[in-house]
Amino acid sequence: MDIAIAKGAAIFVSIHLNSNINPSFNWTEVWVDAEVTSTRAQSESLAGRVAQSQAPLLKNPNPVSLRMSEWDGKSGIPGVVYSGHDSPWTPEEEGKIYVLEHASDTRLMPAALSEVAHLSNATQESAFRDPAYLQQVADAISAAITQYLGQP
């Protein structure tokens, strides 16, 4: 985040791999900070593109909508999840994701945090050992970012 701020980046995308005690979890999720209203629409657009770019790569016929159907406070954008105090799914005790809060508040840049997959899922764990698959994931995220930055 500090590098993005120092370089005057137009956007901030943080890429992660998740885990869960339930090994059947097999989806992608992309988080945005719902409480930063000045960049919320742009962050949602960015996050939506990143989520949709990842969905076809998962070994699940409908990973994004499967996950989103479980959320009461969903964003309405497939694969996009809200971080914040009102979110039903808050990964941190205070309901905020540090990098999103600070990227958005400090620079007013659109920001998203992508949880590409769950390594606790045996299929995904195996896939992420394959360098060709890693390249596919990187290319998909890169294409989503390029598409977002190229929009009018």
UniProtKB/TrEMBL annotation:
InterPro entries per the UniProt record, alphabetical: MurNAc-LAA_cat, N-acetylmuramoyl_amidase_3
Pfam family, one: Amidase_3
Domain MurNAc-LAA: from-to ranges: 1-146
Annotated CDD domains: MurNAc-LAA (cd02696)
Protein's UniProt keywords contain Metal-binding: no
Keyword Zinc-finger: no
Any one GO MF annotation of this record: N-acetylmuramoyl-L-alanine amidase activity
PANTHER family: N-ACETYLMURAMOYL-L-ALANINE AMIDASE, N-ACETYLMURAMOYL-L-ALANINE AMIDASE AMIC
The name this protein goes by in its record: N-acetylmuramoyl-L-alanine amidase
Species of the source: Candidatus Segetimicrobium genomatis
